[in-house]
Amino acid sequence: MFTPSFRSLRHLALASIVLCGLAGTAHAEDTIKIGIVLPMTGGLSAIGRQVMAGVRLFQAQNGTTVAGKTVSVIVKDDAGQPDAAKRLAQELIVNDKVGVLGLGLTPSALATAPLATEAKIAGVVMVSGTRIVTDRSPFFVRTSFTLGSQSAVMANYAAKTGSKRALILHSDWAPGAEAAAAFAENFAKAGGEIVETLKVPLANPDFAPFLQRVRDAKPDTLFVFVPTGQAGTFAKQFSERGLDKAGIKLIGTGDITDDDDLPGMGDAVLGTITAGVYAPTHASAVNTAFVQAFMKANAFRPNHIALGGYDGMRLIYAALAKTAGETDGEKLVAAMKGERWESPRGPIAIDPQSREIVQTIYIRKVEKIAGELQNVEFETFPPDAAAQPAK
Per residue in 215-248, is it b (16+ CB within 10 Å) or e — as a string? Predict the structure, then answer.
């Protein structure tokens, strides 16, 4: 009978360890991890809720496999804090070995940019609307929107329809500053006057004292930017201060009549004009199917933020299919450039030079349909006419 020597047993043990390691590596290589950092708690948690609803719906419709590999999504809650976002992104890169990052609010995306660049990991900007974000890393690609584009369109439309004296009210952070600057510049070019610009604290805002200053200034138009999740509070205080009856026209980016908040805003916002990239009432077969599926899966309406996640996942899947499942950052970004498809919001594309989303901007009006407040598109600005900032 053969009795193995100590050396033979040692070799067998080493071989087993190597084989187990290889098996573990093979298993790891069969899974592509996407790490998404979002505010899932805190004052801006509605943003994270909408994004993840879009992400989950895309996977429910398209499966969790691409290029023969399983796609696993890991979501981390930064509560809207950039320091937390940076730490969590680093954990996702170093500990979880994610192959792609999904990026949320502007401060968090900016904090994450150096990490993505150093690690050479593709990052899809699903929420931020600040133009500079994609400048901060060559590995960032946007599927959300840019506030400057919407604000420029809104300024031109306001001037064309009779606005002469506008007051700007915006949340005091980078997206608000960008929206305000783009509106002011384009409104002035069109012959309008900016009466004043008011900055509202982002955290726990109380709009009432600022709205009193608006009333006292007596502009003919109030241009507003507040982030998704705060629009309901703004609308309530706008009505309480009687500005809906003061003859001041309320306009803004799509966020101020955001479809996540709109059902509970009240009739004070009827007639409000906004420039946005999406409304659930958008007339297309693709959107009708999307809204039906989204409403069936969730107890709330989809908004433009949900599409940042939904289209973001679509872009990631398309790029992985092109790279045969490779997550090399440079290859993935190259695969994303020039990608185009029919989104529920309309035709969109990724500009191959800027890595920015190219999309239509719509002028919308709040109307009541079947007893519910809805944003209804009535004028269209295609990408070549939407004053979208170039790089």
Answer: beeebbbbbbbbbbbbbbbbbbbbbebebbeeeb
